[in-house]
Structures are given as C-alpha cells and as structure tokens.
Amino acid sequence: MNIIRTVVVRSLLVLLTCIASGIIFNQFYSGGIRASELISVRKEISYKRIAQDTSLAYQRVSLDEAYTLFKTKAALFVDARQEAIFKLAHIRGAVSCYYQRAAQLPIVNEWPKDKLLVLYCGGVKCDQADQLAETLVGMGFTNIHIFPGGMDAWRPAGYPIDETKAHH
Amino acid sequence: MNPGLKIAVTLTARIVIGVIFVYASWDKIIHPFSFSANVEAYQILPQRALYLTAIGVAWLEMICGILLVTGVWTRTAAFMISVMLMVFIVGITRAMFLDLDISCGCFESGIEGDRIGWRRVFEDTLMLIASLWIVIFPKSPLSLWDGEVTDVLGPA
User: Fold this and answer.
1) With an 8 Å Cβ cutoff, are B58 and A22 in contact?
2) What is the pTM assigned to this prediction?
C-alpha cells in the first residue's frame, strides 16, 4: 500500500510541476500560449491561433469568407483530394491538386507565388488541405488560405459545384 | 528470472523510453499552438481544455522522460508514462474507428506530422509493456536517486 500511495502522491507532484513549468514557460516564450488565454477558448479560435504560429504561413477561412472569395473571383480554389474524387464533385471552377503530387504538377509551377489560393478537401475530418498548404508554403507560395469546412460545408450551403452525373 | 538480466532489461527500458519521451516532447513544447491543433483533431476534449492539455502533456513527456533517464523517482515516472501511453492508445484507436484521417501528434506537432495508424498503436503498446516492466521492477544502476527500488513483489 505504501508503494502505491508514494507513487500516487509523487505523480500528482510531477503533474503539478509540469503544468506550472508549462504555464510559466509559455508566459515568456515568444510563440507561447499566454496564461490569460489558457481556458478562454472559443470554437475556431484555435484555428486562428495556428495562423499566428510563426511556423505556419497560412490562415483559415469560414464558409462565408470562402464564398465571398468565390463570388468575387478573388481566389483560385484548389482541391487537395485525389483526382478521381475531385472528378465526382468539386467547388465550381476549382482545380485538382492532390496534395501528394502537388510538387510535380506543372500547373502549380505556373501560378504566381503571391496568387490567392483557397485550399480545401472533404471537410473538417480530412487534413489534405493542410498537407497541401505545407507543400505550397515550402514551394514559396505566400497567400494561402485554407477552407476547413470543405465540400461538407459547401454542398449543404447550396453553393455552386461541378458534378459528374452517373451514366446508365 | 536472473536478477542481472532483470536489471539489464529495466536499465535498457529506462534509457530507451526516457530518450523517446524527451525527444517527442521537444517539438510540442516549442510549438504549443500547433500541438493543441493535434489534440483538437482527436475530437475528444472540449475547446476550453485544449491549451492546458497540450501544455500539460508536452511537459509531462519531457519531465517524465528526464526522470526516467536520470533514474529519479523511476517508478513514478514509469507509472505516469504508462498512463499516458494508455491514453494515447485509446485515443488513436478511437480516432481510427471514427475514421478520422488525422496526424498523430506523436513526434512532431502540426497537421503535417505522421498519420495515425495501427503501427502507432503497436509502438505505443510495446512502450507500455516496457514501462509497466519498470513500474514493477524499477531497480537498475545509473540511477541518481534510488528511493524507489523496492520491488512490488518484495525487496530487491
């Protein structure tokens, strides 16, 4: 029993030490989470925080923002899913750029590096758009946005899509 | 079991797991926002708990890893690492059954990291077995502080 009690008490001590060290470190570290922000998190806030993370050079857009960019033709929409899935249905006017092949696609090299790109995939459950963003940032693109809602958000909203109807 | 062999297994497990945990914690500590996105992707915790969890897990990995390598509070460190590994295994398995195509957040923070998969579950299970071994037989040389050397199964 003694051993168990010792281990439990020490575990709690270690846990408290870790949380305290973490909070203090983050308070002073330039890329840290400040104590005032620790539990004041609303939905989507963390995505914005990722955008502020200096190691990631892109930001996320909501469905409304994505549609505004679509309507005004301000951005090129890029579908990060596999080409076969892209062919079934995609946001109207989007181009296919499967994230694993992005670096080899000739079309990617034709885009100006400061072109406004909106990357998307299936929805919040996939992160192919994030992967593609990493690749494109690595290639020098500077104006990248991710639309995390993807097809799952776009389709129910009734916004334009290009779809392949099954032939019989 | 040969006591010498037992001690050798403990020492090896201590160093290997300790180094892995310290290594794995580093990227999470210096990229707390990215790591909180990894935690978020598992869709287990409420939004308000993400930052604190991300910071807590990163530092727990670091400090428990250091305790294991240096041989201070060895049994406690191995116990906490075992608990963490169990949580990781359950989290990854759950995510796979939910068909979440996400990054593991195991060794590097951020969505560009390694994918989750059965290989991760397998690795974590191996480490869990090794850390449970240390919990049961914490005695080994090269320990800075040997206050926890008494075996669960009796004095060493």
Assistant:
1) yes
2) 0.63
